[in-house]
Amino acid sequence: MSxxxxxxxxxxxxxxxxxxxxxxxxxxxxxxxxxxxxxxxALPTIEALRERGASLVLVSHLGRPKGEVVPELSLKxxxxxxxxxxxxxxxxxxxxxGADVETLAAGLSPGGVLLLENVRYEPGETANDxxxxxALARLADLYVNDAFGAAxxxxxxxxxxxxxxxxxxGLLLQSEVERLTAxxxxxxxxxxxxxxxxxxxxxxxVIDRFLEVADGILIGGAMCFSFFRAQGIAxxxxxxxxxxxELAEEALARAGDSQCELLLPVDLVLGxxxxxxxxxxxxxxxxxADGWMGLDVGPRTAATxxxxxxxxxxxxxxxPMGAFExxxxxxxxxxxxxxxxAAPGTTVVGGGDSVAxxxxxxxxxxxxxxxxxxxxxxxxxxxxxxxxxxxxxxx
Length: 395
Ligand code: ADP
Ligand code: MG
Known about the structure:
Blueprint: E1 17-21, E2 28-29, E3 32-33, H1 37-51, E4 55-59, H2 76-86, E5 91-92, H3 99-106, E6 113-115, H4 130-137, E7 142-145, E8 167-169, H5 171-185, E9 191-195, H6 200-213, E10 216-219, H7 223-230, H8 242-256, E11 261-263, E12 268-271, E13 280-283, E14 293-297, H9 299-310, E15 314-318, H10 331-342, E16 346-350, H11 352-360, E17 369-370, H12 375-382, H13 387-390
Parallel strand pairs: 1-4, 1-7, 4-6, 5-6, 7-8, 9-10, 9-15, 10-11, 15-16, 16-17
Antiparallel strand pairs: 2-3, 12-13, 12-14
Helix pairs in contact: 1-2, 6-8, 6-12, 7-8, 9-10
């Protein structure tokens, strides 16, 4: 499949004002940007537009202020970091929309950049309110969506505004869609999918899809306990998403009829509580006694998963193998991350925590595509249409 939406590359932007939806939803630490990966990821689109003589009005959300002005979630620190990365001034709007903001936008000269305040300060954002979409549209001549991480949401700044201005895909958004679509539509074989993390119900859709298109699914993280529970295996005090048990049962039933192998852990690392200082024990079985919880996959499981990853033509990894934030329970995630980094096949990693793990291990550079979208990447891989992409002009 080739990308079917109009690209910002093909838009006439010289002398135009462009509203660019970016995903600057970055972690903050004491009023500073703690990780600027997402800001860097938006630079190609921003720089291309500036070079071509456009002026830019940037709009993003940050956290969940739920329609109210929450000063701790101001985009100010983001604007400061962006100015450093661009080596150019970034004006900061005092609000999202309104007469003052319109005046600032109208005053931009070619190459100028204005960053709006956190769009989720406006209750109309998540409601995809028409009045907010109109107010955003009044700020510019064209619209570019480069916020892949928010493209699965039909919000005013991701969807509504695209019906009111000519809408184009940004470079990051396009690359994300192309890279992720290629994994399901034309993967090198075997296609191996590694799934972990905490929420089965968010990820079961992707399991269903991959039972049809992948050659192997390797399950780790807390997710495996929903599967063990479905198989009647004792899970002790492990984190089990109850809602996920039934879904896991269905996935196991489907896996029986599928060409795709579904692998579950064969050993575990146990702890007494979710705590780095807890008593730790490696277990050669997957049954977990009361008083213990599974916090990582064991070394035999990790070695098997690493072998499968090494032999894969394509690897997709979403979700850590264990509670990797706790050093005693990080080994399984590290082994998988190192295997993905070393794999000769095409490698794609998505999911906020999985990407954080890759960064922590210093391995992100060794992966072919690190997705900036968690939920958006899963929905795309499931074969769902993303509203923020659909609303753009066709190519
Ligand atoms: P991603 O953001 O990569 O999609 P998730 O958000 O689904 O991943 O899950 C990440 C979280 O899952 C991490 O905080 C990690 O501590 C937790 N986790 C993984 N394995 C376990 C486990 N066995 N028990 C408890 N929590 C776990
Ligand atoms: Mg997460």
